[in-house]
């Protein structure tokens, strides 16, 4: 887990931040200059004060440099926060843009959760990196250099000692780092295991309760938490020890500078003002290096998020047909020609050839995971054939304008995603300017009237995250309303009544029948009623599609 | 350091003021107060050593300029060396002591939070988000002590000491220092708290909305693409991201003004101290000591600004922990009620109705069941029919709104919560597989089980071959939430655990979920065969295969019993069961007929 302190991709991918980053570097140089100026002024004030006199210009200079440093701290903070905000907004847009570019096939499964977390709160970890670590990183370069430059002029022999001892900090840091890293990493893995244990126990409480072991487990939680403590302390002992060594190295280096200065001062070989300047400045040279080191750890989370976001959003998109490409009329014959779809681990469809004639209602059955949904995904353009092709009216689907093609499809998925928006917006998805009467008709066709009537603000009721607040049957009817609103010649339904109770199923089935009437329909189905309405039944099994004679065994009249 | 008698924050009743949560946390900290105070003192010693080092070194240099005999400087030279080394050592011990104390306390907090949750009777519906928040809330307690209280108390001690020492040299200089320290240690932290609180209030809703956008765009990607709505949603999210960025920039300008004020305070205090000291005719060397010391003291005190910010961010989590521990003082009796659970049992449902919300349709509507010892019943029906509610009522997690559930004639609620699972239980919905070994997961069912019993139960669930094929055997770790197992293996493990527990009334809620039809039939048959003759079984399933041997099948729909009887009778009569049976067998027979 070693990361570079600065990811150069950032400059390329977030050009808007370049200017601010340059300013940040400039402020770092200024800050170093001001540290030197402040120490110079203070040394002067104190050297004069020894005679009981007040060096007014020097004191004024001290106050001015302090004021300037204060303004600089503000500017540094504000600008680094600005960079953080810019980078986060850009990466969020990029990340979500990548989702749009790649399409639902890419974002399916685990990646959806990852991206949602990353684009949501994950990137906020960058605040610590930009406002905490990055300015410190700049200072760890500029301040030692500025101090050295100043001390060379005041007392070159001290400067030599500083120059020789300064590299000890990063060298020791690296040595200790290597030494401790292997041990620490092993420890952290154990820690993660033990730390996860508490969450594991809490999440499993219902099961513990089901076996009457909930209370008895409290002692186990305590024991594990105690094990966590012991392991953590072991790790911390190593981590803190390296901090101690670095601090001692810095202290000893300062002493190496201070002792000869003191001796020369005693023998009258050095002016007090110079000696004070060296004393005030020397510790400043070692400080930022150590501070940057200790803040690096705190910004790891942000750097990891940054790396993930840059990598994910840069993934090359599958090429898509140019806009304006020909769009075949979906009221034509759709043919699968030797289509195979292979995913990373499994082959979802093997060598499928079939023809869907206009106006046909085709039911697809088969065990779960057999490739039924992949069949619909192909038609929707979510999945591309690994080999073979799909043609509509003789045109290869891979070459058509996907958006225009999808406009001729209405899709009712197994579990429609409902958005945290109003019910009306959820129904007129992708058609925000639908007239009220068309919307009302879709609501009526999908048998949503009673649902709308039961909501506090009717169609304007805002749903919770993922449509929280509606039952499965109601959600399915919202999906049907979307399909009605689309008024497309081809409808694709993916087990629209799975997981519904009988009453809800009856309502949804009724609406489904109205929806498929007069259109080409492909429906993944198990329910007898849907099978009864089908012109043809296809069985998908192990990735192969078989034509099933519509035979009485499979047909149940209700 | 025993420290048990150290004064603590007031623990009196009432006063649910602004620091109630902190007070609750401090109450938890009482046993570790000695260690915490020790850590605080070490932290103060660290900071004071740093301050004294700078002051002494300045004194040394300025005195040396007068070219005194060396022996007048010897003490100071030794002091500088001692302070330089001891600062590092102090810091090291302070960090270790502080972490040790706090981690000890967190062990306590975790155990208490768990005990409180465990003592809750009834179902607790908690999403994964809520759970992980709970875990990080507990960590907030750790941060409160380590990053807020310890540095704050160190800063306070050093501030007081610095003023005291300064007062010995010059009272006016000490006065100037006091003003500076009060600004740095009181005014600025208060300001930082206010600014942080306001920022959080403004930023939080926008961040929440953005998180929702991200969920909609990823989890709803297919819906958006199919309906050509991706562009619009992307634009909306992008606009929100930029609005958030603008807000964050504006708030940063205010937030960092506090830090800038801190730098200004340190410098101004040093200048004021110099002026005051010179005006009071303090000796030149001591003016230098005062100036450098004042600079260092204010910088130490400025740590309070960071601490105040931390504290503001930690408060919501602390409040939640305090509420959790407060709301349910551990009064829930651990084991009251009947515990006479030996022997065969008769379980009865009489006219049971369950309603989750007032006004909502009942989840169970007048259901009656009779389950004498040795009887085996299946409850079937579509999703949402009330099957899982039935299981929840059976195990005492949900109480009926009306009607009675009795075990051997006594109401279920009369039994001790911890004891009931020995009589009624098994494989319930969403059975959790722990991140532990196979053995540990199984022993949860019956801790005293021997190797033979483990083997028998695992074989009945069809998992034995897999266990024996693992290099670590019973000690195979199953991964987080059973992540190293397939869905089917996880289900078999949960089933084996239920079979091992072997309660007299065994509830099996969808025991073969996630298994393919052939495996499901085999596992169901072997699980039923494994159950001892005198034990009764209540099987909840949506699959109608393998139910022919059962004594009764109850069909639920919409919370009501719509059909009941043996398999043969139900298949012969028109209705939901026959429809479903024909459909399932057709699908599966077709499946078999077409298999190569």
From TrEMBL, chain A:
Subcellular location, record wording: Cell membrane
PANTHER family according to UniProt: ATP-BINDING CASSETTE SUB-FAMILY B, COMPONENT LINKED WITH THE ASSEMBLY OF CYTOCHROME' TRANSPORT TRANSMEMBRANE ATP-BINDING PROTEIN ABC TRANSPORTER CYDD-RELATED
Protein's name in the database: Thiol reductant ABC exporter subunit CydD
Major subcellular site: membrane
Matching PROSITE patterns: ABC_TM1F, ABC_TRANSPORTER_1, ABC_TRANSPORTER_2
Keyword Transmembrane helix tagged: yes
Segments forming domain ABC transporter: 334-556
Record-linked Pfam families: ABC_membrane (PF00664), ABC_tran (PF00005)
Residues annotated as transmembrane: 21-46, 58-75, 133-153, 159-180, 238-259
Tagged with keyword RNA-binding: no
Gene name as annotated: cydD
Record domain ABC transmembrane type-1: where: 22-301
Keyword vocabulary terms for this entry: ATP-binding, Membrane, Nucleotide-binding, Transmembrane, Transmembrane helix
Membrane topology classification: Multi-pass membrane protein
Automatic annotation (TrEMBL), chain B:
NCBIfam families found in the cross-reference section: CydC (TIGR02868)
Compartmental location: Cell membrane
The keyword Lipoprotein belongs to this UniProt entry's keyword annotation: no
Protein name: Thiol reductant ABC exporter subunit CydC
Chain segments annotated as transmembrane: 36-61, 73-90, 144-169, 175-195, 251-279, 285-305
Pfam families (UniProt xref): ABC_tran
Family matches, as InterPro entries: AAA+_ATPase (IPR003593), ABC1_TM_dom (IPR011527), ABC1_TM_sf (IPR036640), ABC_CydC/D (IPR014223), ABC_transporter-like_ATP-bd (IPR003439), ABC_transporter-like_CS (IPR017871), P-loop_NTPase (IPR027417), Type_1_exporter (IPR039421)
Claim: Membrane is one of the keywords in the record: yes
Gene designation: cydC
Membrane-topology descriptor: Multi-pass membrane protein
Superkingdom: Bacteria
Boundaries of every ABC transporter domain copy: 347-583
Keywords assigned by UniProt, alphabetized: ATP-binding, Membrane, Nucleotide-binding, Transmembrane, Transmembrane helix
């Amino acid at each position: 887990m070693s990361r570079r302190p600065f990811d150069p991709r950032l400059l390329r991918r977030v050009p808007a931040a370049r200017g601010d980053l340059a300013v940040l570097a400039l402020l770092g140089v200024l800050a170093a200059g001001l540290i030197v100026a402040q120490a110079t002024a203070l040394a002067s004030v104190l050297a004069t004060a020894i005679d009981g006199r007040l060096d007014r210009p020097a004191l004024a200079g001290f106050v001015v440099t302090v004021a300037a440093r204060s303004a600089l701290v503000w500017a540094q903070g504000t600008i680094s926060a600005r960079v953080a905000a810019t980078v986060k907004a850009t990466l969020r847009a990029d990340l979500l843009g990548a989702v749009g570019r790649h399409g639902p096939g890419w974002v399916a499964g685990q990646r959806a959760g990852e991206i949602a977390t990353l684009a949501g709160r994950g990137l906020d970890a960058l605040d610590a990196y930009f406002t905490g670590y990055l300015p410190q990183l700049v200072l760890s370069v500029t301040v030692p250099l500025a101090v050295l430059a100043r001390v060379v002029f005041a007392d070159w022999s001290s400067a030599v000692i500083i120059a020789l001892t300064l590299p000890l900090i990063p060298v020791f840091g690296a040595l200790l780092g290597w030494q401790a890293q292997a041990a620490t990493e092993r420890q952290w893995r154990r820690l993660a295991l033990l730390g996860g244990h508490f969450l594991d126990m809490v999440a499993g409480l219902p099961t513990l309760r089901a076996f009457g072991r909930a209370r008895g487990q409290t002692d186990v939680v305590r024991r594990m938490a105690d094990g966590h403590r012991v392991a953590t302390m072991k790790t911390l002992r190593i981590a803190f020890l390296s901090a101690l060594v670095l601090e001692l190295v810095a202290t000893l280096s300062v002493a190496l500078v201070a002792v000869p200065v003191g001796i020369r001062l005693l023998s009258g070989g050095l002016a007090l003002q110079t000696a004070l300047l060296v004393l005030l400045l020397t510790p400043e040279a070692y400080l930022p290096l150590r501070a940057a080191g200790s803040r690096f750890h705190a910004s790891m989370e942000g750097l990891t998020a940054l790396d993930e976001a840059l990598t994910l959003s840069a993934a090359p998109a599958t090429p898509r047909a140019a806009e304006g490409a020909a769009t075949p009329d979906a009221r034509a014959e759709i043919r699968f020609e030797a289509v195979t779809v292979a995913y990373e681990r499994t082959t979802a469809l093997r060598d499928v050839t079939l023809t869907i004639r206009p106006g046909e209602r085709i039911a697809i059955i088969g065990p779960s995971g057999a490739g039924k949904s992949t069949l619909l995904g192909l038609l929707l353009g979510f999945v591309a054939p690994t080999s073979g092709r799909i043609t509509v009216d003789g045109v290869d689907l891979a070459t058509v304008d996907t958006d225009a093609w999808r406009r001729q499809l209405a899709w009712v998925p197994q579990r429609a995603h409902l958005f945290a928006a109003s019910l009306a917006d959820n129904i007129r998805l992708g058609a925000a300017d639908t007239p009220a009467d068309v919307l009302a008709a879709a609501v009526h066709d999908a048998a949503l009237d009673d649902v709308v009537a039961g909501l506090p603000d009717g169609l304007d009721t805002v749903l919770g995250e993922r449509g929280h607040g509606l039952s499965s049957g109601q959600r399915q009817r919202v999906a049907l309303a979307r399909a009605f609103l689309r008024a497309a010649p081809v409808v694709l339904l993916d087990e629209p009544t799975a997981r519904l109770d009988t009453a809800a199923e009856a309502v949804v089935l009724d609406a489904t029948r109205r929806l498929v009437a007069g259109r080409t329909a492909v429906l993944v189905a198990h329910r007898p009623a849907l099978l009864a309405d089908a012109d043809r039944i296809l069985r998908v099994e192990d990735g192969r599609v078989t034509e099933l004679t519509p035979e009485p065994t499979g047909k149940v009249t209700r | 350091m025993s420290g048990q008698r150290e004064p603590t924050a007031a623990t009196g009743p009432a006063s649910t003021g602004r620091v109630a949560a902190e007070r609750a946390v401090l109450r938890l900290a009482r046993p570790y107060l000695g260690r915490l105070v020790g850590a605080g003192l070490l932290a103060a010693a660290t900071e004071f050593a740093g301050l004294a080092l700078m002051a002494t070194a300045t004194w040394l240099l300025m005195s040396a300029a007068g070219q005194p005999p060396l022996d007048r400087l010897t003490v100071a030279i030794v002091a500088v060396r001692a302070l330089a080394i001891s600062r590092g050592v102090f810091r090291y011990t302070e960090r270790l002591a502080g972490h040790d104390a706090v981690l000890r306390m967190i062990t306590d907090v975790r155990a208490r939070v768990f005990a409180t949750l465990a003592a809750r009777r009834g179902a607790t519906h908690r999403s994964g988000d809520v759970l992980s928040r709970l875990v990080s809330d507990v960590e907030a307690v750790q941060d409160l002590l380590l990053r807020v209280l310890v540095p704050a108390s160190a800063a306070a001690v050093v501030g007081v000491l610095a003023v005291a020492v300064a007062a010995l040299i010059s009272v006016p200089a000490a006065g100037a220092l006091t003003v500076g320290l009060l600004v740095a240690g009181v005014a600025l932290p208060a300001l930082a708290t206010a600014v942080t609180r306001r920022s959080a209030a403004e930023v939080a809703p926008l961040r929440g909305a953005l998180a929702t956008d991200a969920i909609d765009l990823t989890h709803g990607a297919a819906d958006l693409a199919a309906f050509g709505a991706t562009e619009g949603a992307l634009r909306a999210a992008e606009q929100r991201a930029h609005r958030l960025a603008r807000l964050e920039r504006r708030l940063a300008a205010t937030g960092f003004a506090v830090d800038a004020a801190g730098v200004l305070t340190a410098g101004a205090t040093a200048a004021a101290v110099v002026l005051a000291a010179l005006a009071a005719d303090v000796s030149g060397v001591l003016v230098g000591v005062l100036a450098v010391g004042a600079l260092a003291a204010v910088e130490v005190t400025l740590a309070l600004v960071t601490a105040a910010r931390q504290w503001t961010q930690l408060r919501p989590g602390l409040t939640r922990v305090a509420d959790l521990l407060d709301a349910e003082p551990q009064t829930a009796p651990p084991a009251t009620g009947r515990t006479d659970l030996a022997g065969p049992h008769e379980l009865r449902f009489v006219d049971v109705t369950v309603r989750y919300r007032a006004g909502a349709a009942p989840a169970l509507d007048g259901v009656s069941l009779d389950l004498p010892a040795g009887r085996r019943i299946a409850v079937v029906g579509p999703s949402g029919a009330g099957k899982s509610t039935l299981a929840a009522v059976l195990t005492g997690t949900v109480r009926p709104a009306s009607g009675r559930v009795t075990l051997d004639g006594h109401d279920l609620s009369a039994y001790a919560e911890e004891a009931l699972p020995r009589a009624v239980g098994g494989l319930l919905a969403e059975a959790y597989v722990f991140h532990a070994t196979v053995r540990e997961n199984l022993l949860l069912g019956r801790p005293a089980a021997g190797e033979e019993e483990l083997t028998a139960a695992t074989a009945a669930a069809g998992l034995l071959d897999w266990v024996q094929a693992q290099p670590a055997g019973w000690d195979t770790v199953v991964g987080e939430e059973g992540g190293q197992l397939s869905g089917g293996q996880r289900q078999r493990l949960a089933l084996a655990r239920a079979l091992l527990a072997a309660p007299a009334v065994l509830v099996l809620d969808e025991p073969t979920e996630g298994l393919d039809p052939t495996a499901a039939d085999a596992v169901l048959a072997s699980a039923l065969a494994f159950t001892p003759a005198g034990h009764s079984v209540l099987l909840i399933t949506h699959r109608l295969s393998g139910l022919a041997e059962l004594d009764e099948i109850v069909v639920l729909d919409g919370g009501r019993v719509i059909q009941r009887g043996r398999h043969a009778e139900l298949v012969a009569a028109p209705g939901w069961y026959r429809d479903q049976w024909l459909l399932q067998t057709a699908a599966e027979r077709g499946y078999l007929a077409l298999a190569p």
